[in-house]
Design a protein that fits this description.
The chain is an alpha/beta fold. It has a single domain, classed as Metal-dependent hydrolases (TIM Barrel, Alpha-Beta Barrel), CATH 3.20.20. The chain contains 8 helices and 11 strands. The strands form 2 sheets. It has a 9-stranded mixed β-sheet with strand order 1-2-3-4-7-8-9-10-11, with helices on one face. The protein has a two-stranded antiparallel ribbon with strand order 5-6. The longest helix is centred in the middle third of the chain and has 18 residues. Bound molecules: zinc ion (2 copies).
């Protein structure tokens, strides 16, 4: 098994060091891909970016077949080329594409913050989020896997923050079709896997991915702490199986299928 979404102290919101990841991965008998936050042009200068040369210089000594080096790129239309250059310049094993901010009428809103939700209802907010995600997937063809499609559900201020496939089926289908057309993976992010109901609601989206011709998924805990490394990865593996999807990890930007025993 591979946990393909892990942060360490190169991410500005994380203090876990690489030794802690290595220990936790060994304890759980899994491989890991480090995916540091790189959100270029983030509204708070200096946040969610890191020195990529330093990253490779420091972690090259740790890199092996069970510990791979990736990045979690924040997708946004005003830094497409810059992100592309980074994806070509450095030899990452894996590039996760994420939506952490949403552009609306020329302004960028942090999904984690409050402003994005003001003056709109849930349906409007979620449509804006998914429309923006669709645009990003079309424009960022250098990602390997679309990260946490349900990211907004973590922070949206609603009693029920789930994304119901039925309510947004047209937009979700378009996103999934773009991924399939571009032969990308989609991530099963286990951050909300403590909640059985959330898992079941999410499953419809991944089943639909399979129905439309999607084949591969990456699994990621999005860990920022040692105790979360590999968390719910087995559950995610079962989830993938139920949806008819193959679990892969990426090495040198190529998907590697995990067989059932791994
Ligand atoms: Zn993320
Ligand atoms: Zn992350």
């Amino acid at each position: 098994m591979f946990d393909c979404h892990i942060h360490t102290d190169f991410s500005t919101d994380c203090s876990m060091n690489i030794e802690e990841v290595i220990k936790a991965a060994k304890d759980n008998n899994i491989g890991t891909i480090i995916t540091e936050h790189l959100d270029l042009n983030f509204m708070q200068p200096g946040e969610f970016i890191f020195n990529i040369d330093e990253y490779f210089n420091k972690y090259i000594n740790y890199r092996n077949h069970k510990l791979l080096l990736g990045v979690e790129m924040g997708m946004r239309p005003d830094c497409i080329e810059e992100n592309r250059e980074i994806s070509e310049k450095y030899n990452f094993d894996f590039i996760l594409g994420s939506v952490h901010v949403v552009e609306n009428n020329g302004l960028y809103y942090d999904i984690y913050g409050d402003d994005f939700y003001n003056g709109k209802n849930k349906k409007e907010v979620y449509k804006d989020y998914l429309k923006y995600m669709l645009q990003c997937v079309k424009e960022h063809d250098y990602i390997d896997s679309l990260s946490h499609i349900d990211y907004i559900c973590r922070y949206a201020p609603y009693n029920d923050s789930n994304i119901y496939y039925e309510e947004y089926n047209e937009l979700i289908d378009e996103i999934l079709k773009e991924l399939i057309y571009r032969e990308k993976a989609i991530e099963i992010n286990t951050r909300r896997f403590d909640n059985k109901e959330a898992i079941d609601i999410l499953k419809k989206i991944y089943k639909r991915f399979n129905e439309l011709g999607g084949k591969i998924v990456t699994l990621g805990s999005d860990s920022h702490r040692p105790e979360n490394v590999g968390k719910h990865i087995c559950l995610a593996k079962e989830f993938a199986k139920e949806c008819g999807l193959k679990v892969v990890y990426f090495k040198e930007r190529k998907p590697i299928v995990l067989d059932n025993k791994e």
